[in-house]
Amino acid sequence: MSKVIFHVDVNSAFLSWTAVEKIKNGEKVDIRKVPSVIGGDEKSRHGVVLAKSTPAKKYGIVTGESLYQARKKCPNILVFPPRFEIYRRSSENMMNLIKRFTPHIEKYSIDECFMDVTNDLRGMEDVEFANIVRERIKNELGFTVNVGVSTNRLLAKMASELNKPDKVNTLYDYEIKKKMWPLPVGELFMVGKSMKKKLNELHIKTIGELAAYDANILKAKFKSHGKIVWEYANGIDNSDISRYRDEIKCISNETTLSNDLTKIEEIHNILISLCENLGKRLREQNKYCTSIAVSIRTSDFRNYSHQKTFKNSINSTKDIILYASKIFSEMWGKEPIRLLGVQLSGLCGSSNIQISMFDEEINPKNEMLDKTLDAIRKKYGDNAVMRSVLMPKDK
């Protein structure tokens, strides 16, 4: 029996989630229906478009371009800052809803997940069931998703991109030739800008041309990555869905960057922001951690991570930043970074300070300070108190 895999992907996630929050708080204008974007610091030279509304697309505004360019295209465009706490909460709400349909869930990123519904269709056709998932999310949570349907993760993910927004799309083996092979090769999962350029130099312009290319030549030229993209072009993917568990084993936070980063100062600020969020979540659950991992995805879609376990259990943001920064500095090979993530694991319910190589830098008073800062932010907002390095810089 073939598997039935769904890929659920939120449409313009950051903008949609911001819109839902604003409407919930009494806002009359749905920013999804007017030219609007979610963008970085507009006072900074690095302010870029992180998400855009459908009306904004009509002006030619694209994700990743500067807010300056976006305003040149549409002077009256509305710009809203990112609010990651809202995004995290919206993501958790979606995951909790999806758990009602199947326990076999793999959260792939903050705004997308895979579902293995092979044994959970309840007598329905796959597309009918996918539409129920799509409609339930829209009606109960207020935002739309695309659902890709196929027999493996790769094809389900590719299917969810075929026709947007608020759609269910299928991509089964017999549909690959018609639906996937005519697409530009750069639209294939795991083919980044660098790989696309190299494939184009081999006169491979479409996914179909990649699928028909000699796999041995690709493997010789691009090593294991060449084999992977050839298999993906042919719809081959034997990976399994990781089952979602209610019991919290770890807490993680990651962000896909709008521009590839190479400057250590900018990367460090992103790392601090991720750790700030994780420290707050850890303390909200009255937990401590004994292990930290940092993960990187490079501009050519290579993933690697490094983890360290330590004797002392911590939940101080300052300590989390300390460990994460040391891990990052040891692992980073200076490649341009597309995604950066931090994960806390080895969760426990109490502090246990022991001798460690970083003992001189671990201070129990940090925990008391963090609790005070958490209380201030809870009452006055996340931006009421922030680290100086994260404050907007004057030009």
Automatic annotation (TrEMBL):
The keyword Cytoplasm applies. It catalyses: DNA(n) + a 2'-deoxyribonucleoside 5'-triphosphate = DNA(n+1) + diphosphate. The keyword Translocase does not apply. The record marks 14 as: Substrate discrimination. Mg(2+) binds at residues 9, 111. Binds 2 magnesium ions per subunit. The active site is at 112. PROSITE patterns: UMUC (PS50173). Its cofactor is Mg(2+). It is found in: Cytoplasm. Pfam families: IMS (PF00817), IMS_C (PF11799). InterPro entries: DNA/RNA_pol_sf, DNA_pol_Y-fam_lit_finger_sf, DNA_pol_Y-fam_little_finger, DNA_polymerase-Y, DNApol_IV, Rev_trsase/Diguanyl_cyclase, UmuC. One of its GO terms (cellular component) is cytosol. GO terms for biological process: DNA repair; DNA-templated DNA replication; error-prone translesion synthesis; SOS response. Its EC number is 2.7.7.7. HAMAP family: DNApol_IV. Monomer. Poorly processive, error-prone DNA polymerase involved in untargeted mutagenesis. Copies undamaged DNA at stalled replication forks, which arise in vivo from mismatched or misaligned primer ends. These misaligned primers can be extended by PolIV. Exhibits no 3'-5' exonuclease (proofreading) activity. May be involved in translesional synthesis, in conjunction with the beta clamp from PolIII. This is DNA polymerase IV. It comes from Clostridium felsineum. The gene is dinB.
